[in-house]
């Protein structure tokens, strides 16, 4: 479309793709060939005495031998100068020939400078043929023109820019002299030949010299004006388009006018006036045409711009579409990855739980058998208890990864904790692994759950041990007052952090696995050797505590796991452990517990436990029903034991209401999973994590009731 628009322009660029430089050189060479050819023809005409060859243009004066020699030298010099890659030698030869032409011309022009002096043209003429005819010889105009053209050639490669310019001006002057000399013949103006600088210049000489001067001007195509005039761009096209109209047309009109006056068709004055009027009209027409061209060009440019803008907008639209498609594809990918992760997680949980359930199932089967020896009964009971313990650990790790575990953050000295678990870590790693500890001078207080902190340490140390295949060095470095850098695209933090870095000399981790290792159930260990939950616990605990874990590793050299935990002031916000109730054992049979649990089996099981512990119980399935029970008989209950996640009000809301309505009534909450408790564990209420044992429930309830203010007004009703 753009090409089509351009081809409609009045002065469209020529389709030829030849560069301005190449075109200029070609014209210059053609001028050289013409000049050389004419000069040789004239010389041959003199030598072989063929008059027609001396004058070439019938009816006109011949070119004298000296002029022919000068133009021959110039023509050959031009051919050397206009070669595409003129070597040093050929340039030198060209300059010598131009010097010779200048010398010949100066010799011929000497007679005009010093009248009566030696006439070179006459002398040369005699050598060849015969003395010069009277009134002939090298014209002053020819001598000046030849010197000018030769100077142009001599100076065109000068180092100084000014000299090069002077050469160009000299060549231009030569062209004008030759052109005026030639025009004198065309216009039949005797004055141009009978006196003054142009006298007696033969027409053939004027044509040859003019052509040669033009060639000299074009022989250096790197000049800006040559590029403008001959270039393929708009300027060149416009110049070539207008040049004939602005130069040739006035010359032709002038010629017409002169002949018309001479033929008596017009008065001289009328002719001049007519010429002026016609020229003015001609120029006005040209100007209008130029203006129209410019206007058309502007319109074309505008259309071009509009087209470009349209293309731009279309492009932007396509980019936006592609970006949207890409985002959709990315979403789909993320979704697919999520599904894969969920699949992996579900598969892992199902696999592990199936193993544990198999143990429980078969143990219970054996326990049901009559006549079981006490020793085997104890063994199966222990197996069930251990398995439940492991299952509970598994869920705890999963919750840790999900950052939904109920943490009990405390402020403790990490240095002290590390020293406390040192011997345990030593026994974990074995004798062939050297543990280097780098501890700070002063204590490092951290706010986190100490049990989870130790678990994270154990996980890191066990991983390091496995990576070192039981042999190597493990460095545990503790430092405080450090900032947290950006980790895996998460922003850093300028706050103070306590940092534990565990560096091993083990196998290292491949770069593409660095993020995968934190996924739950991702393991490279043999079946039965790793569950793939260790690092999930570490990262879940760190993140939930307000910190993070970073990993750096070089395959074959080792890895460094860096655990960041928020630093705390010494003793700040330390949470006191629940004091064990001391003194007299409580009369539990008098105690009545309101159990709130929406799951019927768990509710029944819980009341069974409490009965076995000697408590009276009332079971409700919703928080609303529990409130109604309490309001029905105030002070009936000694404590409320409630699940957290239930339809309706929920355990936390119930506990908060009770804190307002009955501040003396202790509330113990229980849950296996609660984001509410995970985000703010305490809420000021006691909490027992599911799965719980009878012992844990009894301990917490005893402690809660022991702290209860003794304001009971009425005895509890019989248990339901
Ligand atoms: N220090 C380490 N050097 C090399 N690889 C490690 C290191 N720590 C972890 N890994 C890699 O990360 C994987 C996941 O570790 P993670 O602790 O989560 O699970 P695991 O050790 O395989 O199993 P688990 O800890 O549950 O027994 C490992 O299987 C191991 O490939
Ligand atoms: Mg591990």
TrEMBL record:
Presence of keyword Transferase: yes
Keywords tagged on the record: Coiled coil, Kinase, Membrane, Phosphoprotein, Transferase, Transmembrane, Transmembrane helix
Reactions listed under catalytic activity: ATP + protein L-histidine = ADP + protein N-phospho-L-histidine
Name of this protein: histidine kinase
Parts forming coiled coils: 305-339
Residue positions where 4-aspartylphosphate is found in the record: 643
Membrane-traversing stretches: 27-48, 60-81, 93-114, 134-155, 167-189, 201-220, 272-291
Broadest EC class assigned to this enzyme: transferase
A family per Pfam: Response_reg
CDD domains associated with the record: HisKA
EC annotation from Swiss-Prot or TrEMBL: 2.7.13.3
InterPro entries per the UniProt record, alphabetical: CheY-like_superfamily, HATPase_C_sf, HATPase_dom, His_kinase_dom, HisK_dim/P_dom, HisK_dim/P_sf, Sig_transdc_His_kin-like_C, Sig_transdc_resp-reg_receiver
Top-rank taxon, per record: Bacteria
SMART domains named in the record: HATPase_c (SM00387), HisKA (SM00388), REC (SM00448)
SUPFAM superfamilies: ATPase domain of HSP90 chaperone/DNA topoisomerase II/histidine kinase, CheY-like, Homodimeric domain of signal transducing histidine kinase
Location of the Response regulatory domain: 592-705
Example GO molecular function: phosphorelay sensor kinase activity
Domain Histidine kinase: 348-569
């Amino acid at each position: 479309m753009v090409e089509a628009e351009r081809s409609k322009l009045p002065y469209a660029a020529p389709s030829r793709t030849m560069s301005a430089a190449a075109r200029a050189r070609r014209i210059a060479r053609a001028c050289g060939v013409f000049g050389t050819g004419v000069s040789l023809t004239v010389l041959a005409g003199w030598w072989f005495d063929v008059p027609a060859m001396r004058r070439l243009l019938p009816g006109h004066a011949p070119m004298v031998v000296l002029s022919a020699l000068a133009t021959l030298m110039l023509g050959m010099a031009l051919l050397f100068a206009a070669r595409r890659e003129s070597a040093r030698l050929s340039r030198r030869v060209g300059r010598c020939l131009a010097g010779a032409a200048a010398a010949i011309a100066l010799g011929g022009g000497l007679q005009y400078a010093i009248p009566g002096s030696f006439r070179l043209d006459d002398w040369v003429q005699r050598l060849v043929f015969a003395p010069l005819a009277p009134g002939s010889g090298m014209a002053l105009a020819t001598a000046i023109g030849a010197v000018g053209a030769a100077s142009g050639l001599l100076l065109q490669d000068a180092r100084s820019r000014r000299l090069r310019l002077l050469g160009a001006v000299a060549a231009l002057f030569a062209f004008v002299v030759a052109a005026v000399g030639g025009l004198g013949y065309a216009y039949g103006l005797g004055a141009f030949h009978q006196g003054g600088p142009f006298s007696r210049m033969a027409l053939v000489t004027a044509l040859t010299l003019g052509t040669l001067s033009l060639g000299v001007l074009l022989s250096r195509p790197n000049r800006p004006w040559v590029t403008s005039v001959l270039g393929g761009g708009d300027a060149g096209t416009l110049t070539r388009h207008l040049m004939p109209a602005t130069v040739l047309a006035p010359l032709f009109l002038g010629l017409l006018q002169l002949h018309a006056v001479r033929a008596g068709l017009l008065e001289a004055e009328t002719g001049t006036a007519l010429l002026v009027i016609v020229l003015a009209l001609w120029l006005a027409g040209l100007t209008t045409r130029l203006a129209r061209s410019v206007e058309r060009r502007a319109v074309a440019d505008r259309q071009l711009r509009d087209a470009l803008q349209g293309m731009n907008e279309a492009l932007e639209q396509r980019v936006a579409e592609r970006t949207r498609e890409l985002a959709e594809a990315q979403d789909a990918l993320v979704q697919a990855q999520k599904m894969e992760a969920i699949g992996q997680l579900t598969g892992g949980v199902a696999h592990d739980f199936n193993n544990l359930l198999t143990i429980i199932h078969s143990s219970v089967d054996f326990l049901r058998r009559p006549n079981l020896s006490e020793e085997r009964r104890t063994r199966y009971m222990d197996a069930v208890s251990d398995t439940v313990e492991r299952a509970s650990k598994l869920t705890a790790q999963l919750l840790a990864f999900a950052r939904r575990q109920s943490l009990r953050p405390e402020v403790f000295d990490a240095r002290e904790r590390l020293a406390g678990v040192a011997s345990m870590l030593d026994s974990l790693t074995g004798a062939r692994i050297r543990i280097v500890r780098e501890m700070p001078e002063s204590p490092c207080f951290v706010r986190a759950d100490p049990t989870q902190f130790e678990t994270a340490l154990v996980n890191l140390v066990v991983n390091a041990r496995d990576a070192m295949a039981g042999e190597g060095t493990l460095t545990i470095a503790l430092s405080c007052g450090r900032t947290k850098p950006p980790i895996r695209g998460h922003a850093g933090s300028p706050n103070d952090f306590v940092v534990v870095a565990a560096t091993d000399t083990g196998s290292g981790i491949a770069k593409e696995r660095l993020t995968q290792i934190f996924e739950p159930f991702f393991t490279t260990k043999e079946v039965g050797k790793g569950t793939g939950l260790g690092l999930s616990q570490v990262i879940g605990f760190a993140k939930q505590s307000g910190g993070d874990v970073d990993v750096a590793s070089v395959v074959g050299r080792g890895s460094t796991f860096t655990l960041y935990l928020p630093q705390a002031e010494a003793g700040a916000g330390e949470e006191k452990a629940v004091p064990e109730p001391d003194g007299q054992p409580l009369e539990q049979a008098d105690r009545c517990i309101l159990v709130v649990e929406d799951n019927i089996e768990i509710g029944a099981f819980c009341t069974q436990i409490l009965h076995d512990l000697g408590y009276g119980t009332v079971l409700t399935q919703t928080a609303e029903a529990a409130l109604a029970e309490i309001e029905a008989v105030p002070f009936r209950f000694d404590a409320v034991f409630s699940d957290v996640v239930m339809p309706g009000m929920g355990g936390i809301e119930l506990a908060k209401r009770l804190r307002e309505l009955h501040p003396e009534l202790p509330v113990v909450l229980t849950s296996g999973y609660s984001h509410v408790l995970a985000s703010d564990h305490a809420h000021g209420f006691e909490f027992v994590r599911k799965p719980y044992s009878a012992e844990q429930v009894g301990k917490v309830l005893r402690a809660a009731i022991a702290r209860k203010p003794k304001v009971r007004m009425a005895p509890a009703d019989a248990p339901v």
